[in-house]
Design goal:
Blueprint: H1 3-16, H2 22-29, H3 33-45, E1 50-53, E2 59-62, H4 75-91, H5 97-110, H6 113-124, E3 126-128, H7 139-150, E4 153-160, E5 166-178, E6 183-189, E7 194-199, E8 203-212, H8 221-231, E9 237-242, H9 246-252, E10 258-263, E11 268-273, H10 276-284, E12 290-294, H11 296-314
Parallel strand pairs: 3-5
Antiparallel strand pairs: 1-2, 4-5, 4-8, 5-6, 6-7, 9-11, 9-12, 10-11
Helix pairs in contact: 1-3, 2-3, 4-5, 4-6, 6-7, 10-11
Length: 322
């Protein structure tokens, strides 16, 4: 092992745990303790804060401050870093967007071609529908979906829907969308001749077919997923006219809860799916007035909720005893 490679390996070891003896480092690197001491001096000269304690129980550790040591990442770690950096770069409110973009460029420049394709695929076809922070996902499945979206290449997989029914799907993948809880694949379902969204955690036996295709239009992936979530598994519906502009409504209402069906200069009409009590609670939480256009059961649920809240507000104040 040449000196440069040995120094990188030593930094990796020092970063992996808080304390190393000289003998341990020498054994792991296959060198003498004298070489370890010489390499540690080189690292200090390069600006790395190597701290050491002499004696039989002494050892070395990487101190705080100084230069950030090089990071040696495996494939899944590189993908995770790239996805997180992309999320930071796209948020637009943290002040770290340019730094995240710069880090992404550096990461891209040093990756092997195959890994670069995987990471670029995840970055290129992912749509954020939930703000900051990524939900958990199987990196292997996510990478296969992202690569298929980016090439583009047809996919086959088994899918378990919300009712527990499993089916085989042949799709033309388009985008990945992530929300607070789940990842979704937006794709054109060839058997159903329509666009669909699929929860990634319900996919299994994902196969890349190596069959290229041309996209059949470019739908709004985030809107398609939001509409699907807003109505998924909900037989009840209500039509609500919110006394708020379209812009304010979008700020007030999570798109996974309600779908916007119409608007004018002063009001926005929503379609909400779910039980009457669930819809009532969500409407009551909005900082805006509204009218129930359709949904007498929701109107009744709002009455029950209003009476309960009024009763709570009218109770005598209770002084807590500490």
């Amino acid at each position: 092992m040449d000196t440069a490679a040995r120094l990188l390996s030593m930094l990796t070891l020092l970063s992996a745990r808080p304390w190393w003896t000289g003998a341990d480092l020498a054994e792991r690197l296959g060198v003498t303790t004298r070489t370890v001491r010489r390499d540690l001096t080189r690292l200090r000269d390069l600006g790395y804060p190597i701290e050491g304690t002499p004696g039989r129980v002494g050892g070395y550790r990487l101190g705080k401050g100084g230069r950030l040591p090089p990071l040696l990442l495996d494939d899944n770690e590189a993908i995770a870093v790239a996805v997180s950096l992309r999320g930071t770069a796209a948020v637009g409110a943290t002040g770290l967007e340019m730094a995240a973009l710069s880090a992404l460029i550096k990461l891209d420049n040093v990756m092997a071609p195959q890994l670069r394709e995987q990471v670029n695929a995840v970055r290129a076809v992912t749509v954020d529908l939930r703000g900051f922070g990524l939900p958990a996902v199987d990196p292997d499945v996510l990478v296969n979906l992202a690569v298929a979206c980016a090439r583009p290449e047809r996919l086959r997989f088994s899918y378990l829907d919300a009712r527990g029914v499993e089916s085989d799907r042949a799709v033309e993948p388009f985008r990945l969308v992530y929300t607070q809880r789940h990842w979704y694949l937006v794709a054109f379902d060839r058997d159903r001749d329509d666009w669909r969204s699929f929860r990634v955690d319900r996919l299994s036996d994902v196969k890349l077919t190596r069959i290229p295709f041309t996209h059949r239009g470019t739908p709004d992936a985030a809107a398609l997923v939001a509409a699907g979530i807003a109505g998924a598994g909900r037989d009840d519906r209500a039509i609500v006219r919110l006394h708020a502009t379209l812009e304010r409504t979008r700020a007030l209402v999570d798109p996974t809860i309600a779908t916007i069906v119409d608007h004018d200069e002063a009001t926005t009409t929503l379609r909400i799916g779910g039980s009457a009590s669930w819809i009532a609670r969500n409407l009551a939480a909005l900082d805006a007035t509204f009218d129930i256009v359709e949904g007498d059961d929701v109107r009744a649920a709002l009455g029950v909720l209003g009476k309960r809240l009024s009763a709570c507000a009218g109770r005598p104040r209770v002084v807590a005893r500490l």
